[in-house]
Each structure stands twice: as C-alpha cells, then as structure tokens.
Amino acid sequence: MKVVRDPVDLPPAARTVAIGSFDGVHLGHRRVLDTAFETGLPVAVVTFDPHPRVLLGQPVELLTTLERKVELLAEYGVEEIVVLRFDRELAALTPKEFSLRYLGPLGAQIVVAGPDFRFGHDRSGDLDLLHEEGMLTRVVEPVPGVSSTTIRDALHEGDVGAAASLLGHPYELDGRVVPGLARGARLGFPTANLVFAPHQLVPLDGIYAGAVSGLGNRAAVSIGVNVHFGGGERRVEVHLIDFSGDLYGQRLVVELWQRLRDEQVFASDGALAEQIARDVREAKEAVRPVLLDGGRQS
Question: Is the Cβ–Cβ distance between 155 and 171 less than 8 Å?
C-alpha cells in the first residue's frame, strides 16, 4: 500500500479513481470501493485532509483520524491512496483545474463517487461534468439508511451497536496515552488516559465495554467528567483488562462494543471500586457487535 500527497508520486498507470472524504469508511464508502474494484483497473483513492468542512468553518465531528482512515482503506484492499491537503488554494481551483492537476496525473480512466460528491470552486464540479468532458464515471447510490450523519447521531446517543451496524465495524477511539490523575490505579483499576486529534467524535458520556486493537485486550472505558469526584474536564479513561505495562506516549485504537451504564456518584470510593469490578466482568462477557472481514466484499 502506498500513500502519497501528490499524484505525480505514483507510477504512471491507467486507473479507476474513487474520490470522497471516506470518513469512517462505512458501508456506503465500501459500496463506492466495490464499484471501483469491479471496473478491473487498478484503484486509487483520493481523499482530503483536513476535512473540507474545517476550512469552510463548518462544525465537523470526525469518525476516523486520517491515520485510521488510511489503515481501514488498506484493510479493505486499496493499494494506492492520495491524500490531498484541502486548503484555500485547492478550494479555489475550477473543476477543470482540479481535473488537470489531480485526475490527469493519476491516469484516471474512470471516476467513482457518491451522488453528492462535488469538487472545484464553490462546489461547481460533479461527475456529470466529468462525463460531459469525456471521462467515464460511476455514480454510486447510497446504502439505504447509511450516512455519516446517521452514525454520528447514534454515537451521540451512546448506541455503539447501531453505529457498528452502519460502519461495518465497531466504532473506534484513536488517541495517545498521557498521564492522568491515577485515581483508577488507587482503586485497583489503572487506566490509560487518552487525548485525541481535533474534531474526533467522542460518544455520549458513560461506561463502555470494548477492546484495544492490536493488543487484543478487553477494556472497560469511561467517558465523562468523573462525576463521583466532583466533575471537571471531560476525559476518556481505558482500563485494559489483564494488562500490565507502560503505555505512556503510545497510540491506542479502542473499539467500543457496548454501553454499559451512565456515569454515577457513589456513596464511597469503595462502592465505586465495587461497581468498576462489575463493569470489568461485563466487559469480559461483552460480544463484538460486527466482525471485520479484513477486506473487500466478494
């Protein structure tokens, strides 16, 4: 798999190009990728960083970091990815300029995207325009009920099972481990405290069951302000079950499988520790909501 910032860094070839944000690499995105693979040509994905809404000053909650998006695309079988920096210069390009600057060097023979894809200044270009200019195009209709907005709505409600059914994989938190207040360790349940890149969506506060990708450990995950200790900064704290080691500075990708309960205030720290022990038992018994197939659909 090769990831580049400029199409000229890929070897010359005739390609099918799939274009879009691919945030979350959900089932609708997979349909776009499947359509691209079906053309029989080598497939390159063109995506953008940062998300176009960031430059436009619009609110956005991302379902994946750029790093995780690239990994998910690779897992699905994409071998070439072009990450275009979405800045004012790119946004100002006319559709013709965009095509000459990016699609031409990619050797794009066929361009595949969803029906809402737009490009060029003021979103003035679309697949119909490319078709009129003589390029083969494939407009891929959405998967009914699947959209990034619907997934975000489910996560805002803490329904990680519904989100997983639309994503095609469990929702993941992708962050770095930083020092915390060590309250969990004092209660007998040490936690890895995560910080995130800007704009990443963190679901509804509460206690979740999940697992840490790569390490494979089950996890009990606390999202919230630690109401038992009087509230404060919103934190994500991950207790890795049956794990011992130093994780400071490391990247963790944490799958969320099930929301167990709300944050609560307890009569004592001992009562809180007893509840955490119950949470850990539930996390050990939790079932992963959706199995990743690790590649594209047949």
Answer: yes
Q: How many separate domains does the chain show?
A: 2
- Residue ending a domain, choose from 139, 165, 197: 139
Q: Are residues 213 and 256 in the same domain?
A: yes
Q: Residues 62-83: what's their mean pLDDT? A: 97
Range of the domain at 182: 157-285
Asked if the structure places residue 148 within a domain, the reply is: no
Does residue 106 surpass a pLDDT of 60?
yes
Q: Which of 186, 209, 206, 297 is nearest to 256 (CA)?
A: 209
Residue 252's DSSP bridge partners are 175
- E strands within 119-231? 136-139, 171-178, 192-196, 206-212, 218-224
Kindly state whether residues 177 and 90 are assigned to the same domain.
Answer: no
How far apart are the C-alpha atoms of 72 and 24, rounded to whole Å?
8
pTM of this prediction? 0.93
Helix, strand or coil, per DSSP, at residue 80? strand
Give the integer Cα–Cα distance in Å for 33 and 130: 19
Amino acid at 16: T
Give, as one character, the DSSP assignment of residue 19: E
pLDDT digits (tens, 9 = 90+) for 280-291: 999 999 999 865
Count of residues making up the chain: 298
- The Cα–Cα gap between 257 and 260 comes to 10
Q: Quick check: 38 and 107 in contact, CB under 8 A? A: no
**Residue recorded with tokens 């929702």:** 171
**Could you tell me if residue 53 is left (phi over 0), alpha (psi between -120 and 50 degrees) or otherwise beta?**
alpha
